[in-house]
Amino acid sequence: MKKKFHFELSTTQTIMLSFFLAIFVGSILLALPISSASGEAIPYIDALFTATTSICVTGLVTMPTVSTWSVFGQIVILILIQIGGLGIITIMSGMMISLHKKIGIGDRILIQDAFNLNTLSGLVKFIKKVLIGTFVVEGIGAFLYMTVFVPEYGTKGIWISIFNSISAFCNAGIDIISEDSLCEYALNPMINIVTSLLIILGGIGYIVWWDLIRVLKSVKCQKWKCFNSLTLHSKIALSATSVLIVVGALLFFVFEYKNPLTIAEYSLIDKIQVALFQSVTTRTAGFATIPQQNLTNASAIVSLLLMFIGGSPVGTAGGIKTVTIAVLIVSAFATIKNKEDVTLFQRTISRQAISKAVAVVSTSFMIMFTSTVLLAAVTNANALDIMYETVSATATVGLTRNLTPMLNLWGKIIIIITMYLGRVGPISLLIAFNKKRENKNIIKNPTEEISVG
User: d(Cα 47, Cα 432) in Å, to the nearest integer?
Assistant: First the structure.
């Protein structure tokens, strides 16, 4: 009797395929004449590029969002951004919950893998909290934006505020204000503060949200004791985020202080404000208050590093993540000091976590390096501009030194693939590592020492 062929997608394949299908559907909608501001269909490659950058919450655009797309097109882009920021699995699960459908074990495994969680318990409650928390924060952000955009744009300011709030929280970096991102509002405290807070809240990760709320609600929480009550994950994420933002802002302030193309003519307070925003937005947000091509080489290199690191796990940001880089650094120091255990905040980091960190960084670097070489082969741009583009695409940041609009067909294809791999590559790798397979092999290969470093 012939065996029936049974094909079943793994959770990794399901997540990767769901992103691909969302991009495809989005590109078809954006290629329709109704999506264009001019009423004429946009070339499909640009529609595909825009759909990819939206669902991957990157922010690189080949055509200005504000002038290229109609209201319908902008709505499609915003929906793709929201789906990409929250995750397709989260959206699907939320719809099932709202329709009172039962979340089966297969769906729970998908949710667990999508968020890289360590347990299957409490996932329905987790999804509800993620959705409610997201919409509340985005709603507050939109309201605060309205205090600036409604007086300036009238009723259109409401739509601009909603779009910008969702884009900022999802770390997408796409706006419908002007062709120069937020450069017109470089010295506007409200826009700077609201955008920065939305970026940080989206990028810090949902796990940290709930942990902070838990600790703050605790009666025993007093001053610095609150920090000690946090989980190790939250301590690492918050500490790494704070250090990177402060150090990044300080470096930008120093390197751009006398740059006449950026902040040289600003007051001291304004210089601090712009430097701080640049440090925050490089954490995969993609908004710009100063043209990136005007940065000094030193600032551009700092931006490359911050973009590659990105935000924190289980959030809307991209990059290799703050916790990943923190684990690698302490692991390196432990090796240098000849310590057997890797510890941080008086807790031992598991070997599995270190292996994941190495895998994520290696994968991201390979994607970035390959993309850089290929893009260099098809374009005549200088090396720094190309690296800025490929790191931005790999880490789903969206900042560019004005290279994106100049890309030819092959350049656009390379960046499209890079954005997709940057969004799903490290995630898929984490999922693969998270699958615990029992090793039934009794016989193991012999161990032999090698020289490293």
Answer: 32
Is residue 310 a contact partner of residue 427, using CB atoms and an 8 Å limit? no
Closest C-alpha to 89, from 116, 122, 51, 59: 116
Specify the range with the lowest mean pLDDT, choosing from 168-182, 210-224, 365-379, 391-405.
210-224
Q: In the numeric block, which tokens belong to residue 107? A: 């769906």
Phi-psi region of 286 (alpha: psi -120 to 50; beta: other; left: phi over 0): left
- Does 446 score more than 80 pLDDT? no
Q: Find tokens 């409650």 and name the residue.
A: 125
* pLDDT above 80 for 453: no
116: its two tokens:
């890289």
Q: E strands, 284-356, where?
A: 343-344, 347-348
Written as six digits, the tokens of 69 are 């797309």
d(CA 376, CA 223): 52
Could you tell me if 392 and 403 are in contact, meaning their C-beta atoms sit under 8 angstroms apart? Answer: no
Q: For the chain, how big is the Rg over CA atoms in Å?
A: 22
Tokens of 16: 């990767």
* Residues 282-303 pLDDT 10s: 988 889 999 999 999 999 999 9
Domain limits, the chain: 11-433
**Spatial distance between the Cα atoms of 53 and 274, rounded to a whole number of angstroms:** 25
pLDDT the model gives residue 160: 96
User: Among candidates 245, 393, 318, 31, which has minimal Cα distance to 401?
Assistant: 393
More confident residue, 431 or 66: 66
* Average pLDDT score over residue span 54-68: 92
Locate all alpha helices (DSSP H) within 170-205, ordered by sequence. Answer: 189-204
Q: Report the chain's terminal Cα–Cα distance, integer Å.
A: 57
Instruction: Indicate the Cα dihedral angle 60, 66, 70, 73, nearest 10°.
Output: 20
Secondary element (H or E) of residue 269: helix 268-281
pLDDT at residue 437 greater than cutoff 50:
no
Q: Are 57 and 98 spatial neighbours (Cβ–Cβ below 8 Å)? A: no
